[in-house]
Amino acid sequence: MQIIIHKVGKGEGAEEVARKYGVSKAKLLKDNNCRAEQVEEGVRLLIMLPQGEEYVVKPFDTLSGVARAFGVSEGYIAENNALSSTELFIGQKLYI
After folding, report:
1. Higher-confidence residue: 82 or 28?
2. Measuring CA to CA, which residue among 67, 62, 32 is closest to residue 52?
């Protein structure tokens, strides 16, 4: 996982910062343990970007099955994608 430190600029909010790095607003806020109204000019945010090959979840995929197919552990996929659950969703992007 690549970690970037972003200093919030004038007029930026959580939504703009998240969009800039291609992460969800919810993930950005969770990774920084803050609320949207706390993201203001001058605040430094950690941006945690997954690395690796992108895989799009297909019907009937499981975390263990995807891990087995790529020869990695479930824990590796969970950590690299900041998963809080083993449940996968069709169309979800995972980085292996």
Report:
1. 28
2. 67
Residues contacting 56, CB < 8 A, separation 6+: 91, 92, 93, 94
Picking from 55, 90, 49, 51, the residue whose alpha carbon sits closest to that of residue 69 is 55
Tell me where in the chain the CATH 3.10.350.10 domain(s) lie: 2-49, 54-95
Give dist(CA 38, CA 56) in Å, integer: 33
What integer pLDDT is reported at residue 50 of this predicted model?
Answer: 79
CATH 3.10.350.10 assigned to domain 54-95? The reply is yes
Q: Provide the pLDDT for residue 74.
A: 96
Extract the tokens encoding 67: 């891990």
